[in-house]
């Protein structure tokens, strides 16, 4: 059994890398910034993070790097399961708490508005992604709808779209990874831990930094749980 874990940030992945003794291995090629960590146990884990942007020297968050990570890693490693882990904003009014871990049941976009026949629905995505309920029902997680967009903040029209889709969590990668996994017919899970509140954004960015460690630690616990259930 081969499992591919995709994260945007190194810090989100760090507890998993440490706990599973993953070792950094050769990158996809000389150009792509993604970094790859792996082990040789069963199940075999390959973990990919997005790496740093050459021009701006920050990590590559967002959908474009996430789609490339997913594409390259699926083609290179041919995994049996793809798990996107990461942090997310949560909607407090829908019951999200800081540090909660969610499994996304469906992944929408809120930044792809295309008001043309048929393209409207295409833009919004809406991919089903709780592909292994027999496993995820046994985890200590909540479940809810995810909305992905390339901004950390949320403008009024983003909020309106997320409300319409009944989103409980908001990230910057999930839907694009599900899209690629679906192309290759790979079972996919999106597991996100809440670092900040979308509906109480006053301290959004400070909250994110403050809660990143807690969220990453909680993600690691649930990844270990998935691995033990898959044995
Ligand atoms: N590393 C930067 C910030 C990263 S951007 C820093 O330390 O300041 C935020 C990352 O966390 C993205 O990968 C995104 O998927 C996730 N995320 C956390 N809270 C979010 C929110 N409220 N909205 C969208 N994405 C969020």
Q: What is the straight-line distance between the termini?
A: 9 Å
The structure class reads alpha/beta
In round numbers, the mean pLDDT is 96
Any idea what the shape is?
globular
Instruction: Specify Rg, calculated over alpha carbons.
Output: 16 Å
* Secondary-structure element order, N to C: EHEEEHEEHEHEHEHEH
Separate helix tally: 7
Helix content: 25-40%
Largest sheet: 5 strands, mixed, barrel
- Give the percentage of residues in beta strands: 25-35%
Low-confidence spans: pLDDT under 50, at least 5 residues?
Answer: none
The count of β-strands is: 10
Bound molecules: S-adenosyl-L-homocysteine
SSE arrangement:
Layout: E1 2-7, H1 10-19, E2 23-25, E3 35-38, E4 44-49, H2 63-77, E5 81-90, E6 101-109, H3 119-124, E7 125-128, H4 133-136, E8 142-148, H5 156-164, E9 167-171, H6 174-183, E10 188-197, H7 204-230
Parallel strand pairs: 1-4, 1-5, 5-10, 6-8, 8-9
Antiparallel strand pairs: 2-3, 3-4, 5-9, 6-7, 6-10
Helix pairs in contact: 1-7, 2-6
Bound molecules: S-adenosyl-L-homocysteine.
The site of S-adenosyl-L-homocysteine (SAH) has 18 residues, from strand 5, strand 9, strand 10 and helix 7.
């Amino acid at each position: 059994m081969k499992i591919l874990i995709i994260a945007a940030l190194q810090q989100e992945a760090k507890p998993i890398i440490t706990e599973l003794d993953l070792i950094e291995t050769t990158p996809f090629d000389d150009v792509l910034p993604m970094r790859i960590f792996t082990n040789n146990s069963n199940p075999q884990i390959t973990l990919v993070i997005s790496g740093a942007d050459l021009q701006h020297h920050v990590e590559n968050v967002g959908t474009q790097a996430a789609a490339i990570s997913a594409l390259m890693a699926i083609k290179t490693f041919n995994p049996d399961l793809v798990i996107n882990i990461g942090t997310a904003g949560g909607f407090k009014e829908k019951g999200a708490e800081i540090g909660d871990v969610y499994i996304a049941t469906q992944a929408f976009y809120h930044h792809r508005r295309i008001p043309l026949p048929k393209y409207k629905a295409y833009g919004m995505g809406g991919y089903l992604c709780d592909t292994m309920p027999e496993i995820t029902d046994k985890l200590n997680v909540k479940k809810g709808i995810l909305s992905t967009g390339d901004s950390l903040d949320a403008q009024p029209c983003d909020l309106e779209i997320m409300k319409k889709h009944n989103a409980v969590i908001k990230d910057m990668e999930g839907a694009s990874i599900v899209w690629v996994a679906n192309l290759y017919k790979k079972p996919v899970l999106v597991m996100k831990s809440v670092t900040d509140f979308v509906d109480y954004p006053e301290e959004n960015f400070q909250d994110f930094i403050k809660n990143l460690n807690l969220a990453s630690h909680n993600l690691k616990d649930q990844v270990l749980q998935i691995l033990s259930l898959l044995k």
